[in-house]
Amino acid sequence: MHNTSSDIGTVNAEKMFPRAFFLENLFFFFFRVISRQFSNPKGLQRSFSNVHGAHGKYQKYASLSFRSDLSAKTLVFNVEGTLLKSYSLFPYFMLVAFEAGSLLRALILFLSYPFICLVGQDMGLKIMVMVCFFGIKKESFRVGSAVLPKFFLEDVGLEAFEELKRGGRKVAVSDHFPQVMIESFLRDYLDVNRVLGRELKTSCGYFLGLLEEKKKEMLNLEEILGEDSVISHDIIGISRLNSSLDHPLFSHCKEIYLVKRVDKRSWQHLPRDRYPKPLIFHDGRLALRPTPLATLSLFMWVPFGFVLALIRAAMALTLPYSISIPTLTFTGVKVAISKPKLSPSVLRSSKEHESKKGLLYVCNHRTLLDPLYLSFALKKNFTAVTYSLSRLSEILSPIRTVRLTRDREQDAKMMERLLNQGDLVVCPEGTTCREPYLLRFSPLFAEMSDDIVPVALDAHVSMFYGTTAGGLKCLDPLFFLMNPRPSYTIQFLDGVSGLSTCQDSDKSRFDVANYVQSEIGKALSFECTKLTRRDKYLILAGNEGITCNQR
């Protein structure tokens, strides 16, 4: 009878104070969710000892450095737990949303971030995958190979990399990253033998934004781990303390070394000169690492930056040099100019009796604005020849631009005619390169003029890249000018004589081109390569860079 009265009282109270009871139930719901997140790792850790205790023993990560037999072992390591310094997955999914999707998709992901943090890691991962991948065409998805490797490499811990490098066969596993996000980075840049990430569901060639269920059984262990390792059980696992070890490969590990948070805090970032393979090409618009705070700054800046870019472009197109240069400097555009030891005027006067041609400025290629900045530096107009240029950029350019045809004889006649009309600028690399490397210089320019002036150019941005291989090239100048403080460095180098004045019969046009490339490389501290425009577009866009750039 007493219980019946209590139940009646409770029902009456709920009717009188429905909002209070709703808030109370909501509070207890979130309390259970949060407490489950904090209590689960300990439970998981206890279950590891029970489930895997018969297969291996756990060691401190620091003791791994004392082993001298790793070269004969197969290393199975968790990507996000042991290789990367950062624990957050958000920046990498934001890159997918922005680069493979759109600004709107990236905004949706950013607005979902508080809810992602609240619901826990597994549900948060599913939300990020849905927002980032839903409706993306699988065949055209190249963010994993063209964009993400740069940001992954910048997040690799030096100490973890050194330990993995000492191993024999290396197998990477991930409980969170989809396979398409990490495979290219690990295989192409870190020489990992096998990568096992999460698989994404697809339909009719499009991602559905859903993860496949984790595989409970592993087939072909000999293929994944190596036949010798499976027979001799020479398999060592590396994972993070208090993280899930339910991947089937860890059950075959003889020993498992666990990385603590304090270990990661002491790690250094992997220096660029220690990369197993140099990062020469990468694509994408974002130059910053899109952490939640950086992403917030990005979205706050975009409306203002867009207007500022239009103002900067209008100034450059309409105002004379004497007014536009100081005005652009006031808006944050920085230009540093280094004058040559031998001025072009002196070089020209010494050969005035031999040629009435204009000067030929040969520069490396950083952005589509290279000729325009060179024009600002010299405070005069000239003609620029390019291998590819969007129609919109060609129309809006304040200086004359002429498109090359890639036919050597036809391009030579065109450049000869243009030099007879005045000064000419050419970028013999044929395409832009963001990193401190120079691509192979096409030797055509060496035969065109006696008066060659090498120009070393470098551009710096903090938020957006002003170049693209797979996007719309007509937006390149806009993205460059949207940076808060874009800057250019221009160095005029000593003049070089063309082949018509060269008395050495052994000297070829290739020798002249290589010499100019090396001089520009020395001035910028860039490394010279033999890579070409074709190599770049095959890596980043999957084509030869002919049809994709005419937009």
Structural account:
With 551 residues, the chain is α/β, with parallel strands linked by helices. Helices cover 44% and strands 16% of the residues. The chain is built from 22 helices and 18 strands. It has helices at residues 2-16, 18-52, 79-83, 90-101, 103-119, 121-133, 143-146, 148-153, 158-165, 179-190, 221-225, 227-232, 261-265, 292-318, 321-330, 344-349, 370-378, 391-396, 408-421, 476-481, 509-524, 533-540, and strands spanning 57-60, 74-78, 169-178, 194-198, 200-203, 206-211, 235-240, 255-259, 334-338, 360-363, 383-386, 400-403, 424-426, 437-438, 451-460, 487-492, 496-497, 527-528. The strands form four sheets. Strands 9, 10, 11, 12, 13, 15, 16 and 17 form an eight-stranded mixed sheet that branches. Strand 11 (383-386), helix 18 and strand 12 form a beta-alpha-beta unit. Helix 4 (90-101) packs antiparallel against helix 5 (103-119), helix 4 packs parallel to helix 6 and helix 5 (103-119) packs antiparallel against helix 6 (121-133). The protein is globular, with a radius of gyration of 30 Å. It is a multi-pass membrane protein. One of its GO terms (biological process) is cutin biosynthetic process. It is found in: Membrane. Pfam families: Acyltransferase, HAD_RAM2_N. Residues 359-460 form the Phospholipid/glycerol acyltransferase domain.
